Q: What sequence folds into this?
């Protein structure tokens, strides 16, 4: 009796799938790494955690159960140890960012965040590194910029009804006004704090809940996303109606358009200036312009420069404003009033000689405040604004934390998992800035596990800018006010960080 070809093909398909599953779970080189079998079987298990917004919390639970190495996919391992941190993220480790980062490409161009190989990344980083040095933040033009924005923030609160502010929005105004001026100079700065409605509207696409759905598809089904958004005509209309995870304008479209216009305006101005004049400007775009095609053969074109700046713009908005929001929310909670009193005492210790002409504490003085630093560190420990795994791969087989990991497997560490480790941080889920104040061995150990800004060659380049913005804003606010949640807000979390 002849067996229909379709049945034969289906049977063969099932046999191959079963064989692959058995191989993946029991015989793959990653098989000896502990973890739930379902995760070893299929990457869709982890994708499901992502879909329901539980991925990072799930990683934490898995590490609590299985230890410092957990297999979380057929070809993916999550680590949570200092040994793994050094091997994967240590300077010169040879591990690269994975294709996950492609979704951060802007206008189809690579940028510092998305470059894979170290050489391309290092060349680009060299062009802007000076702008981000700590010495550039605490004195001169950039310090003045940050102090000005802190003053505008205080003025904004003063002008609000009952000095009540919805801090998600107002702190986003502060961070976007700061980063746009830092990147593009005064002519390219937004003016959210001083009332521009058009600029304030830029943050509305950040709030859209569909943004998370779009990110999910971009990570787990990138080809689908590319195909769907590329359709035009009738197919485009059908895709838009039934298949778009997020309607246009999609995430950050407004901010990306703004970034492109700021770059074009800069390019028009630059055409009438000498490179020596441009070099005197403190903005990041001015530093990049020295590498423009008009200055160098094989230099960067307008789109490269626009993309680089747009990426820094996106990196510099939510990170600082979410951290500030969590800090103020935490300090405002009734059980944390004692910490609020301590931060107020710390910022009131600033002498009048360290205030600027508007009574705003100077960035340099804010940098030296121990309790402000402890509050920020503790906020970033408990609620890092980028809490999730930072995926990397190596083209060579590597031993990580005692486990042999084959070439091209995805490995990662999550700051949230590291920073809530109960063996290192006593009562890890409790906000307690005091834990950072002593100088004993326990604090030294906590510092080794503190990883909110990542580490090695790909650590956050905006660290010093972010710290200067956050210390100056907190000092300016708590010198003048104490903060309490408005009715109802003492019972809920701001919930931006999906832990
Ligand atoms: C509280 C504030 C901030 C935190 C916690 C933070 C955290 C981080 C982390 C964890 C990474 C590495 C991500 C990964 O590898 O997956 C990163 C990279 C980066 N951050 Fe930040 N960031 C902050 C503020 C900023 C600001 C204000 C800027 C300003 C431009 C910025 C620009 C960047 C850039 C350009 C990279 C890529 C660096 C590279 O690949 O060399 N960040 N940041």
A:
């Amino acid at each position: 009796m002849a067996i229909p070809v379709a049945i034969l093909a289906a049977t063969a398909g099932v046999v191959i799938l079963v064989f692959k599953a058995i191989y993946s779970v029991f015989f793959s080189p990653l098989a000896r790494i502990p973890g739930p079998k379902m995760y070893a079987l299929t990457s869709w298990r982890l994708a499901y955690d992502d879909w329901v917004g539980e991925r990072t919390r799930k990683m934490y639970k898995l590490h609590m159960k299985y230890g410092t190495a957990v297999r979380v996919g057929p070809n993916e391992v999550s680590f949570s140890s200092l040994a793994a941190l050094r091997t994967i993220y240590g300077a010169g480790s040879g591990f690269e960012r994975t294709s996950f980062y492609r979704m951060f490409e802007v206008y189809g161009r690579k940028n510092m965040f998305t470059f894979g190989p170290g050489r391309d990344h290092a060349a680009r980083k060299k062009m802007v590194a000076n702008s981000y040095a700590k010495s550039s933040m605490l004195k001169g033009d950039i310090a003045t910029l940050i102090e000005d924005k802190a003053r505008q923030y205080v003025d904004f609160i003063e002008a609000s009804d009952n000095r009540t502010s919805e801090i998600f929005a107002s702190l986003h105004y502060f961070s976007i006004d700061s980063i746009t001026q830092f990147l593009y100079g005064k002519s390219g700065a937004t003016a959210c704090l001083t009332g521009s409605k058009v600029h304030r509207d830029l943050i509305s696409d950040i709030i859209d809940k569909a943004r998370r759905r779009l990110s999910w598809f971009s990570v787990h089904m990138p080809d689908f996303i590319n195909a769907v958004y590329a359709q035009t005509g009738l197919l485009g209309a059908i895709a838009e109606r039934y298949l778009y995870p997020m309607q246009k304008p999609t995430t950050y479209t407004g901010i990306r358009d703004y970034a492109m216009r700021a770059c074009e305006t800069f390019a028009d101005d630059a055409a009438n200036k000498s490179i020596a004049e441009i070099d005197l400007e403190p903005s990041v775009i001015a530093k990049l312009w020295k590498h423009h095609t008009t200055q160098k053969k094989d230099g960067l074109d307008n789109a490269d420069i626009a993309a680089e700046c747009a990426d820094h713009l996106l990196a510099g908005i939510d990170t600082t404003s979410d951290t500030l929001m969590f800090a103020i929310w935490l300090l405002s909670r009734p059980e944390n009033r004692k910490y609020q009193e301590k931060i107020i005492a710390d910022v009131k210790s600033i002498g009048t000689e360290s205030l600027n002409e508007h009574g705003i504490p100077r960035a340099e003085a804010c940098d030296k405040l121990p309790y402000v630093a402890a509050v920020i560190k503790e906020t970033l420990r408990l609620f890092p604004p980028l809490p999730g795994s930072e995926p990397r791969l190596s083209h060579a087989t590597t031993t990580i934390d005692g486990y042999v990991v084959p070439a091209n497997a995805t490995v990662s560490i999550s700051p949230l998992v590291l920073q809530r480790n109960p063996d290192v941080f006593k009562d890890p889920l409790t906000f307690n800035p005091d834990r950072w104040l002593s100088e004993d061995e326990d604090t030294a150990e906590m510092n080794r596990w503190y990883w909110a800004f990542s580490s090695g060659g790909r650590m956050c380049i905006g660290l010093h800018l972010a710290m200067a913005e956050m210390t100056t804003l907190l000092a300016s606010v708590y010198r003048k006010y104490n903060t309490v949640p408005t009715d109802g807000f003492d019972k809920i979390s701001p919930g931006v960080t999906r832990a």
Summary: The mean pLDDT is 92.
